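Reproducibility note. Readers wishing to regenerate the assembly model reported in the main text can use the exact inputs given here. Chain order matters: entities are listed in the order in which they were concatenated for prediction.
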Amino acid sequence: MFIFDKIFEMTKNFVEELRWRGLLHNIMPGTEEQLQKEQTTAYIGFDPTADSLHIGSLVQIILLMHFQKAGHKPIALVGGATGMIGDPSGKSNERNLLNEETLNRNVEGVKKTLERFIDFSSDIDNAAEMVNNYDWMKELSFLDFARDIGKHITVNYMMAKDSVKNRINAESKEGMSFTEFTYQLVQGYDFFHLYTNKNCKLQIGGSDQWGNITTGTELIRRKAQGKAYAITTPLVTKADGTKFGKTEGGNIWLDTKRTSPYKFYQYWLNASDTDAENYIKIFTFLDKEPVEELIFEHKEAPHLRVLQKRIGEEITIMTHGKEAYENALKASNILFGRSTSSDLKTLDEQTFLDIFEGVPQGEITKEDLEKGIDIVEALNEKSGFLKSNGEARRALKENSISVNKEKVKDDFVIKTDDLIADKFILLQRGKRNYFLLKVK
RNA sequence: GGGGAGAUACUCAAGCGGCCAACGAGGACAGACUGUAACUCUGUUGGGAAACCUUCGCAGGUUCGAAUCCUGCUCUCCCCA
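Running the prediction on these inputs yields the following structure tokens for the assembly.
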């Protein structure tokens, strides 16, 4: 007993950790005491709505990592069953159901993503565990559910939840299906199941999950006379009011197939100063002191953007590995640093494509290139990059056109020498508009 | 059913026979500045190297000449029944 206490003094206080990082939104009374008393098991659920997770889920993943570092045992739950129903929390419309095939694929994808962050194979006593609620839900018949679970929770109680109220009140014209109404009870049953089978006493989730989580603790209290706890994290926001994790190009995913490490790194690098101060606490594992130092340093010389760079580094390495981070950094320097066309020419085809993923492309023939392509022609007729010769000339007059990162004048002629990786010519208007000419 | 107002470039909005590819504002894009930010300043914003061509709801007409005047049509808004 003495030894056990000792271990717990040495490890970090999980709740305190969340508190200074700004990750605590709501906590059920008694939770902190429970965590200090003994090694506790907690779970977080992940929705298999896509075959990978995006950075919105990163907070929850990091929470599991913190939890484990604090000496407790984390469970990641993949919602194979709940995904079949659709969580109404925070949604104003009835959700479309995924077919089973897609769902299975997504469950696998989400599992793979989680495995990259959390070690499920280790043999330490607080090793992480992954479960899929479909495994126990599939056994449960509707009648069993209605008798054994439904009996313990009143509709009045369920109706009082915000997720339900918002959908039933007069302003919502959509209504809510019985399926979605049931959701909180199904999630509540998950908690109950993990409580009874894995001694899981805590569920963590985003602030929109409070209602669902408390349905679980309520069920545990009534059905098993047990005490279970809840912690929610605030929604990660951006100072300018736009949605976190989204760009014009869509979500930022944790999978390289959906978001290249380069774009991933860029997302963090472009965070605003106020956001960066929050992100460094939320998304990195740096301790309080180094974080405060970095924030101080950043305020002294904001133009250096030490915060953004550090955040990008930490998270990209954690998500995609060191090599991917270094490539992303290299790519960033090529695009935004003072790189020359000879830098560009050192790139191999794959790296080049990664950097310019999603950049519009056009094809040209080798014969044309050997003859030499006039720059105006290349910008308009050959590529469609600019809408007319007039626009191309105007742009050239504005000194805004670059070929392979080097500004060119209107008498420039593109030749075979300009090829990158034997295949590409990089056209650019201004800083952000790229176009790739590809030799057929 | 009666009366009135209007339709102009990405949006708003001037123009009311030649000087109109069409004032101005916003947006967008670019240049300078900067931190791959914000702000500010500057430029560009139908096609064409140019001559010139195609645009001002649609179709005709008057005129040497029309976004501007006339006729018809389509659509929008307002007021009265």
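We highlight two features of this model. Residues 266, 269-270, 272-273, 302-305, 308, 332, 335-337, 388-391, 393-395, 397-400, 429-433 of chain A lie near RNA strand B (CB under 10 Å from a C1'). Residues 402 and 408 of chain A are 6 Å apart (CA to CA).
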